[in-house]
Specification:
3 helices, single chain, alpha+beta, two-stranded parallel sheet, 2 strands
Length: about 70
Protein backbone atom coordinates (compact mmCIF):
# COMPACT_ATOMS: atom_id res chain seq x y z
CA UNK A 1 0.00 0.00 0.00
CA UNK A 2 1.41 3.37 -1.02
CA UNK A 3 1.65 6.14 1.58
CA UNK A 4 -1.02 8.81 1.45
CA UNK A 5 -0.26 12.14 -0.22
CA UNK A 6 -0.56 13.79 3.20
CA UNK A 7 2.09 11.47 4.69
CA UNK A 8 4.43 12.13 1.75
CA UNK A 9 3.87 15.89 2.02
CA UNK A 10 4.75 15.72 5.73
CA UNK A 11 7.81 13.54 5.28
CA UNK A 12 9.53 15.67 2.64
CA UNK A 13 10.12 18.79 4.81
CA UNK A 14 11.33 16.55 7.66
CA UNK A 15 13.83 14.84 5.37
CA UNK A 16 15.08 18.17 4.00
CA UNK A 17 15.49 19.54 7.54
CA UNK A 18 17.32 16.46 8.78
CA UNK A 19 19.71 16.63 5.83
CA UNK A 20 20.35 20.37 6.34
CA UNK A 21 21.04 20.06 10.06
CA UNK A 22 23.33 17.07 9.57
CA UNK A 23 25.33 18.95 6.93
CA UNK A 24 25.62 22.02 9.12
CA UNK A 25 27.78 20.28 11.73
CA UNK A 26 26.24 22.63 14.32
CA UNK A 27 27.27 22.12 17.94
CA UNK A 28 25.04 22.42 21.01
CA UNK A 29 26.62 25.71 22.07
CA UNK A 30 26.43 27.31 18.59
CA UNK A 31 23.72 29.82 17.70
CA UNK A 32 21.41 28.70 14.90
CA UNK A 33 19.59 31.21 12.71
CA UNK A 34 16.54 29.96 10.80
CA UNK A 35 15.15 32.26 8.12
CA UNK A 36 11.54 31.33 7.38
CA UNK A 37 9.26 29.29 9.62
CA UNK A 38 7.31 27.38 7.01
CA UNK A 39 7.24 23.58 7.01
CA UNK A 40 10.98 23.19 6.36
CA UNK A 41 12.00 25.95 8.78
CA UNK A 42 9.85 24.49 11.56
CA UNK A 43 11.29 21.04 10.88
CA UNK A 44 14.81 22.50 11.07
CA UNK A 45 13.96 24.04 14.44
CA UNK A 46 12.71 20.64 15.65
CA UNK A 47 15.89 18.93 14.45
CA UNK A 48 18.07 21.55 16.13
CA UNK A 49 16.19 21.15 19.40
CA UNK A 50 16.49 17.37 19.14
CA UNK A 51 20.27 17.79 18.78
CA UNK A 52 20.35 19.94 21.89
CA UNK A 53 21.21 23.25 20.22
CA UNK A 54 20.78 25.81 22.99
CA UNK A 55 20.19 29.04 21.05
CA UNK A 56 17.90 29.16 18.02
CA UNK A 57 16.88 32.46 16.43
CA UNK A 58 14.01 32.18 13.95
CA UNK A 59 12.58 34.85 11.65
CA UNK A 60 9.40 35.03 9.58
CA UNK A 61 7.03 37.77 8.38
CA UNK A 62 3.98 35.77 9.53
CA UNK A 63 3.03 36.25 13.19
CA UNK A 64 1.34 32.84 13.17
CA UNK A 65 4.48 31.09 11.97
CA UNK A 66 6.56 32.91 14.58
CA UNK A 67 4.20 31.59 17.25
CA UNK A 68 4.63 28.04 15.92
CA UNK A 69 8.40 28.47 15.94
CA UNK A 70 8.39 29.56 19.58
Amino acid sequence: MAPSPRAVASAEPLAVALHAVRRSEIAKRDTAIVIGCGPVGLAVICQLKARGVETIVASDFSPGRRVLAA
